[in-house]
Amino acid sequence: MSDGDLSSKYVLQTAGFDARFPNTNQTRHCWQNYTDYFKCVAAKGEDFAPCKQFKRAYHSLCPNEWVSKWDEQRDNGTFPASLEP
Amino acid sequence: MLQNFSIFNTIYNDAPQPWQLGFQDSAAPAFTGIVDLHNIIFFYLIVICVGVFWVLGSIMYYFNTKNSPIVHKYLNHGTLIELIWTITPALILTVIAFPSFRLLYLLDEVTSPTITIKVIGHQWYWSYEYSDYVTDSGQSVEFDSYMIPESDLELGQFRLLDVDNKMIIPVDCHIRLIITGADVIHSFAVPSLGVKIDATPGRLNQSSILAERTGTFYGQCSEICGVWHGFMPIAVEAVSVQDYLAWIDSV
Ligand SMILES: [Cu+2]
What we know:
The structure holds two protein chains of two kinds.
Chain A: H1 3-9, H2 27-44, H3 51-61, H4 64-76
Chain B: H1 29-62, H2 79-108, E1 115-122, E2 125-130, E3 141-145, E4 167-170, E5 175-181, E6 186-190, E7 195-199, E8 205-209, E9 215-220, E10 233-239, H3 241-250
Parallel strand pairs in B: 1-5, 4-10
Antiparallel strand pairs in B: 1-2, 2-3, 5-8, 6-7, 9-10
Helix pairs in contact in B: 1-2
Bound molecules: copper (II) ion.
Copper (II) ion is lined by residues 121, 186, 221, 225, 229, 232 of chain B.
């Protein structure tokens, strides 16, 4: 694969600075994007493009183990926060 | 062309040497800043040491009991000298605090990162996750990084430092690290990139690195985490952006 193909396939981009989370501790930055994504989906539906932003951000910031644990809790109805929009 | 002559070709020290006292060669602005601050403070430290030992030596030499048997008569009290040796160190410490805090806050800054890498400390290995490219179908890149045991070392590999899967980063890109622990507290440290930050379970710590040149940089877990604490090294390989994309594509 040539370089041009690769750089269009993988865009070097990640969740930006968020003024709500200016500290070293980014735990809430991850959590906020995770809950915001599912709130967004609940309000606007899976296909609503602006929701994807939250999804990309929580994937970039949250350890995969945390994401799968939270996904499981949502399936079981034991997720410790309301995802109502 | 000039690189062909060995005197124009810098060879960097990117691994610790036996009995090494100094720093490794810097590969990031953060570490250059740390080394510079150290060197500047060390200069004044030597000046102060020479001054203190000069005074101490002179007193012992000129005012011992044999030379001046009643010197204690004048050694009871001296307001002026006490003021001087109290206020001067206080001023010196204040002056040192300014560049020190400046550096501290510069290191804390995460400048608009191009990629985010999640670093997770386990008993006793590190694992890395690259999830910026997760699309609806796309998979997150994640792998474990174990130390290569001494019996499996190949020629040129470093004992207790080389790993099976290195963390690959592109040069000249601001990289956000999200560091956490899976079981106990570890600490992610790479001297030549100027990072050392705790990997605490349940908490995500953020740090930033910028590699200024290609190469492989080594570090070790820096928070006692159990029996094999000393055997979970960190190896970071900085490559060109093209090579980085090719690597991401291949894993
Ligand atoms: Cu450890």
